[in-house]
Amino acid sequence: MQNITDIIEAYLKQILHDQKKIEIKRQEIAERFDCVPSQINYVINTRFTIEKGYFVESKRGGGGYIRIQKIVILDSHDLLDEMSRWIGNDLTQQAAEDYLIRLVNEQLLTRREAIVIQSLLQKESLPMALEDQRRMRAHLMQTVLQTIKRL
Amino acid sequence: MQNITDIIEAYLKQILHDQKKIEIKRQEIAERFDCVPSQINYVINTRFTIEKGYFVESKRGGGGYIRIQKIVILDSHDLLDEMSRWIGNDLTQQAAEDYLIRLVNEQLLTRREAIVIQSLLQKESLPMALEDQRRMRAHLMQTVLQTIKRL
DNA sequence: CACCTCTCTGACCATCTTTGACTATTATTT
DNA sequence: AAATAATAGTCAAAGATGGTCAGAGAGGTG
């Protein structure tokens, strides 16, 4: 946890812990952590994705901003359907892990369950060409989502 | 006990004696013991395997690490290893269900966990020729058995 | 000595992070 | 309306780690 990305991520999440939404100025954050502005984009693109449950908006030009919100979906059924739609028929290993973590946070899965599922979705478990792997992973994840509904 | 592998192994295990988990930087350890970085991989691959009761994770790139955890060896590991042997690389849907029921009875899985796994091993989840399906199912089940060890 | 197994090394690969030049968009000023 | 200023976005290259693998080296055994 000495790389800037993790530090900035922690900083933003800590704020989001108290507030549901934050609005930052890219340049300001970059200055505060002494990094280039595009670093902030990297943090957002890798740590505040839809898979992880965040919604990001931004505006350029004078008075520009980046706004980050934690997505709250009250009805778990809806969350499962949303996830299903997001996934479609293509899913990377990283995205799968992010979704599983989200499901654990939403208490739709236990940590143990997520670990087992994750192990089945990792590339070592899907011995096939990369493209097929992602399709297969998506297919299995869809099954998981449907199964959770009946648990 | 004069070769570097043993020395590094002892060093790491001594730390693991006090802590359940350690996180190292490959390069740092290599420097400390004056060896090439890949030596660390050798140590890990030969001395910190799942069979020996260790679980290892890592991350590359800036802020990368290697994390080693000691997992508790249970008697039930024998059962898991036996099942693994029985299954080999071919598993029917019915047999899979039977194994899962057994695992639930042995309290190695919860009912919910078994249901999720079963849903992933059913034929609808494995869209491929029947023969491949059975091989794939066996492969996934093997993953499950290994994963259970570190739950 | 011949042979086998375990260890060690280094070249090459894969993945994640950081940086900066260039681009796109919006607001403000002329 | 056009020019300028103020922001944010994109992308590819460089940097920072860890992983793999094949071959060389070392130690033991018949």
UniProtKB/TrEMBL annotation, chains A, B:
DNA-binding as UniProt keyword:
yes
Return the InterPro entries for the record: CtsR (IPR008463), CtsR_C (IPR041473), CtsR_C_sf (IPR041908), CtsR_N (IPR040465), CtsR_N_sf (IPR041902)
Residues spanning the membrane: none
Which Pfam families does the record associate with it?
Answer: CtsR, CtsR_C
Ranges for the CtsR C-terminal dimerization domain?
A: 76-146
Top-level taxon of the source organism: Bacteria
Alphabetically sorted, this entry's keywords are: DNA-binding, Repressor, Transcription, Transcription regulation
* Gene3D superfamilies per UniProt: Transcriptional regulator CtsR, C-terminal domain (1.10.1200.150), Transcriptional regulator CtsR, winged HTH domain (3.30.56.130)
The name under which this protein is listed is Transcriptional regulator CtsR
Name the source organism. Exiguobacterium undae
